Amino acid sequence: MKHFSARRVAFVAIVIVFAGSCSGCALGAAGMVTTIAPMVAEGSAQIIGSQVAMQQSGDTGATKEENADKCDQLVRVPIGVEEIRKTKAGVIESRQWKIAETSGDPIWIVDRSQTEDAPEDAWQPKPGIANLLFDPPLFQMLKPGEPEYLAYAPADVVNVSDSEQFDSMTGAFGAGVGTFKWRDRTYSYVLVKHLPCFKPEKEK
User: Fold this and answer.
1) Helix extents (H) in 19-67
2) Which residues contact 87 (CB under 8 A, 6 or more apart)?
3) For residue range 3-38, what is the model confidence (pLDDT) as tens digits?
4) Closest by alpha carbon to 136, among 48, 58, 44?
């Protein structure tokens, strides 16, 4: 199966933009998906999902020293990033991460803006994740007590913003593991054990 390059994705996006068919709207899904705004067409989402299914990443993705351009792209074009874990009781919990720019290098911080009533560590149960049609199933990919970072972006694009988000994800986190859906829109997701590019804030 042929691999869709980021350049080709961007080209398709620009062509469609000139056709006048793009628009965006904010997205929130089951208390997890909160930061990206795609409009998704059918087609390559299924191709992406099938060609990378079960190819879970185990490394840190891009590094600032070796992939400065990719890391800078991630700062310019943020994507959705959630730390996901499965408890011994079989409950999936998550907390959102984002990049914060400091006087030195940017760092990853836990985004507590959406979790005012959550515990100090921001972990919250996410029972609605089961309704997002993860393929491969997210529940089966998580091991109890071993949290991972889930990054996501539009699986197919209809505008330049969608293409840039997809490039940010694949450039920094690597190729997608699979797809999930929310309100008939499809996203590609990646699982890694460590955040790429920048150091995370220290746990309190």
Assistant:
1) 44-52
2) 93, 144, 145
3) 434 444 333 333 333 333 333 333 334 444 443 333
4) 48
